[in-house]
Fold:
Amino acid sequence: MLRRLMRVSVLDGGEIAEVRRRHLAALAGELRARGLACRLAGPGESVLSVHGPGAGRRLMVVATPTGAGWSYLWPGGGMADVAAAPAVADRIRLLL
Structure:
C-alpha cells in the first residue's frame, strides 16, 4: 500500500500575518538600502508599497506562502523566494 504524506500548515492566521510582515519588512530594509521609499500598507500591513525616486512610480509587493516556503510577488509577473530579498530589491529597483 502506497501512502501519501501531506504537508499541513501549523500556522494560524495571526502567525501567518506576522511571518508575512517579517518577510515584507526584510525586503523593505533591502529596498531602503537602495534608495527606495517604502511602507507597509493594507489590512494588517499585508502589502509593501514601494516608491521609486523622482518620477513618482510605485508598485506593490506581497509575500505569500507557497508549497516550499514563502515567495514575494510583484506586478509584471515578478516572483522570487523570500530568501532572495537582496536580489528582489535589485530587480524592483530596476523596474522603478
